[in-house]
């Protein structure tokens, strides 16, 4: 791979401003037949989202993806969201019981608007078969498949019927895949995104490695339609992770979906737990993200998100760990 870089190695180059105020810039995005306030979605992880957070995001005009780690709650969740006139967006895995679940949804004529197939190594027959199964039984559902890190994988999943693919293997803040297996896009996630986006004919979700709000604009520049974020969304009042107090300061737990804390056992562990500083209300972070993105659009010389896609950029340095500690 040539031209390998990550978020911290890139600066976008400003173009002449065409607005008189940043408030004129429109950060909304069309995705899966809906328009959302931001091209950003909190990660489908158990310390990031629960039913309450999902509800407030959908009501507020934001995209969300519910996690898949309490499978018994999914049916009621879909019914509840749809009875409120909101979209239902859930996650599934690829094990046998997930096929039964899809069949049950079809039998009950319950069609979630979005289903995300959430697997560590998404370039696999298991995911291809699940895409095909969902498309056969729930043809109206918008299927997001992942995670992948190569153009071949994007093409294969799209060809199988995925409506969007999710790119990012190992760049996450609580990820240890890169250390335990030696594989992934950790340290070069932004370049991997660009590589995958060039092959994509459908939307791409950039997943993992976002450390600053500026990284959202950089993801857009390199081909993302939507950006999935975990660590920046951990630590809010509403975040489901446990709150702890240390030396008079409040923290919230954030653990990986492949960590022993999620799995309840030490088998194939590829995630860790950390504590992030308490950050206040989620809505304040979303508002700040919107303002920062509006500002980014103005620096891109436009008034809509698309303006960011065409800006020039400079590669400023190289680093392999994206600012993270190894453990
Ligand atoms: N984005 C990322 O970088 C990563 C994300 N994760 C997250 O962790 C959670 C758990 O993921 P995952 O372990 O895939 O889910 P599951 O534990 O549900 O595993 C899904 C299925 O895929 C099999 N499987 C998992 N990894 C591999 C592999 N490398 N090669 C072949 N088969 C495999 C599993 O079997 P078996 O367990 O027997 O192998 C199981 O049958 C997900 O939420 C995922 O998003 C995890 C790691 C990386
Ligand atoms: N390798 C692992 N990746 C994981 C795990 N749990 C979640 N994830 C991925 O991380 C992103 C969030 O990244 P962040 O940098 O924004 O914090 C999430 O969406 C998953 O794709 C895990 O246990 N191991």
How would you summarize the topology of this molecule?
Blueprint: E1 10-12, E2 29-31, E3 34-36, E4 40-42, H1 51-60, H2 74-83, E5 89-92, H3 96-107, E6 114-118, H4 125-137, E7 142-148, H5 151-160, E8 164-167, H6 177-181, H7 189-199, E9 204-207, H8 214-221, E10 226-229, E11 243-246, E12 249-255, H9 260-263, E13 273-277, H10 282-299, E14 313-315
Parallel strand pairs: 4-10, 5-6, 6-7, 7-8, 8-9, 9-10
Antiparallel strand pairs: 1-14, 2-3, 11-12, 12-13
Helix pairs in contact: 3-4, 5-7
The structure holds NADPH dihydro-nicotinamide-adenine-dinucleotide phosphate and ligand LQESDW3C.
Function: Catalyzes the irreversible NADPH-dependent deamination of GMP to IMP. It functions in the conversion of nucleobase, nucleoside and nucleotide derivatives of G to A nucleotides, and in maintaining the intracellular balance of A and G nucleotides.
Protein name: GMP reductase
GO molecular function, one term: GMP reductase activity
Please explain how this structure is put together.
It is a single chain. With 327 residues, the chain is of the alpha/beta class. Helix content is 31%, strand content 18%. The chain has helices spanning 51-60, 74-83, 96-107, 125-137, 151-160, 177-181, 189-199, 214-221, 260-263, 282-299; strands at residues 10-12, 29-31, 34-36, 40-42, 89-92, 114-118, 142-148, 164-167, 204-207, 226-229, 243-246, 249-255, 273-277, 313-315. The strands form 4 sheets. A 7-stranded parallel sheet has the order 4-10-9-8-7-6-5. Strands 11-12-13 form a 3-stranded antiparallel sheet, with no helix packed on it. Strand 9, helix 8 and strand 10 (226-229) form a beta-alpha-beta unit. Helix 3 (96-107) packs parallel to helix 4 and helix 5 (151-160) crosses helix 7 (189-199). The model has no long low-confidence stretch (mean pLDDT 95). The structure holds NADPH dihydro-nicotinamide-adenine-dinucleotide phosphate (NDP) and ligand LQESDW3C. Ligand LQESDW3C is lined by residues 43, 45, 147, 168, 170, 172-175, 177, 207-210, 228-231, 256-259, 270-271. NADPH dihydro-nicotinamide-adenine-dinucleotide phosphate binds at residues 93-95, 118-121, 126, 147, 168-170, 172, 175, 177, 208, 257-258, 268, 270. One of its GO terms (molecular function) is GMP reductase activity. Residues 6-310 form the IMP dehydrogenase/GMP reductase domain. Its EC number is 1.7.1.7. Catalyzes the irreversible NADPH-dependent deamination of GMP to IMP. It functions in the conversion of nucleobase, nucleoside and nucleotide derivatives of G to A nucleotides, and in maintaining the intracellular balance of A and G nucleotides. NADP(+) binds at residues 204-227.
């Amino acid at each position: 791979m040539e031209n390998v870089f990550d978020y911290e190695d890139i600066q976008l180059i400003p173009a002449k401003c065409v607005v008189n105020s940043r408030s004129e810039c429109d950060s909304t995005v069309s995705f899966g037949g809906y328009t959302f306030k931001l091209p950003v979605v909190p990660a489908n992880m158990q310390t990031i989202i629960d039913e309450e957070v999902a509800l407030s995001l959908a009501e507020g005009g934001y995209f969300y993806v519910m996690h898949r780690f309490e499978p018994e709650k999914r049916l009621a969740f879909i019914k509840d969201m749809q009875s409120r006139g909101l979209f239902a967006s859930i996650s599934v895995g690829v094990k046998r019981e997930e096929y039964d679940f899809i069949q049950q949804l079809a039998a009950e004529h319950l069609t979630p608007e979005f289903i995300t197939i959430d697997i560590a190594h998404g370039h696999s027959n298991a995911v291809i078969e699940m895409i095909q199964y969902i498309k056969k039984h729930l043809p109206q559902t918008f299927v997001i498949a992942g995670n992948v890190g190569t153009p071949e994988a994007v093409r294969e999943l799209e060809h199988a019927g995925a409506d969007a693919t999710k790119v990012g293997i190992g760049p996450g803040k609580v990820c240890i895949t890169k250390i335990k297996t030696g594989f992934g896009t950790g340290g070069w996630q932004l370049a991997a995104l660009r590589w995958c986006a060039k092959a994509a004919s459908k939307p791409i979700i950039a997943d993992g490695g976002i450390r600053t709000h500026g990284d959202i604009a950089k993801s857009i520049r390199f081909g993302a339609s939507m950006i999935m974020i975990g660590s920046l969304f951990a630590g809010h009042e509403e975040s489901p992770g446990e709150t702890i107090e240390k030396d008079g300061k409040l923290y919230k737990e954030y653990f990986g979906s492949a960590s022993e804390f999620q799995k309840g056992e030490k088998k194939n562990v590829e995630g860790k737990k950390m504590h992030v500083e308490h950050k206040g209300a989620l809505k304040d972070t979303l508002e700040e993200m919107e303002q920062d993105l509006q500002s980014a659009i103005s620096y891109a010389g436009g008034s809509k998100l698309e303006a960011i896609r065409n800006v020039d950029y400079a590669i400023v340095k190289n680093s392999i760990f994206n600012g993270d500690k190894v453990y």
